Amino acid sequence: MNTSGQVPQGYKRIGISACIMHPDPSRVVFNGRRLSYIENSMAEWVFRAGAVPVVLPHTAQRDCAARLIESVDGLLLHGGVDLAPESYGETPLRPEWSGDKIRDDFEIALVQHALSTKKPILGICRGHQLLNVALGGTLYQDIQTQVSGALVHRCAERYNTLSHDVDILSNTLLSQLYESLFKKSANKNLLTARINSVHHQAINALAPGFTIEALSTHDKIIEAVRITHGPYKHQFVLGIQWHPEFQLEDECQREDESALLDPMPIMQAFMDAVSQE
Ligand code: MN
Fold it and tell me: Which of 10, 104, 215, 229 has its CA 20 to 30 A from that of 201?
């Protein structure tokens, strides 16, 4: 708000794909109703970059995704529940990894409309995986089960205080965003940085058009991707497996917080792309 009490016009509108809480008769509030929600630090991250977060809820309307994308300047894919293996041509290895096909279909439609209308897309955690699936890639249903020798990438007790190193590769967008850190790195071909880790699924087969931006140092799990070639190579489409936004509102005690990668350059790069559209 400015000194005259008016809210300035012209804020960019960032659509955040809502998490879906499906009807649950045991719930005390909104008994048996479907809810659409976002985790608040995602809204905080968008606000800090000077834009306005807009929640994009799934509805039964046929043109729901198209209308929602039409109304926003960029698409931010939120984290949350597993993807359904059916979304990438598999069946669940265990019932608890069945995911949410309704949300997958809705978000894939959001991605398709954002791509066809040339709107920038940033995917976080599940959103990073969703981007890969939407463009034809696959996932590991469970890292621990399917990747021998892998790190623990999600821990219920430690949740977002769990962290590990990633190698940011040279000649990537992330290497530009963290150029000052790169210059200090002993190895000029990669920058090893610390990030949080709250996922048990990960990218398996990389979708056409994507380039890997960062790999988990210990086990080479793909932790960041970007579209650099193919029909959408001129669009901003970035996936980040970690949760930069969690660092903004964390009230958890974390010994190594200062060592984690700064979350704002990623959001600022997304906002720069949004501003150029
Ligand atoms: Mn990880």
Answer: 229
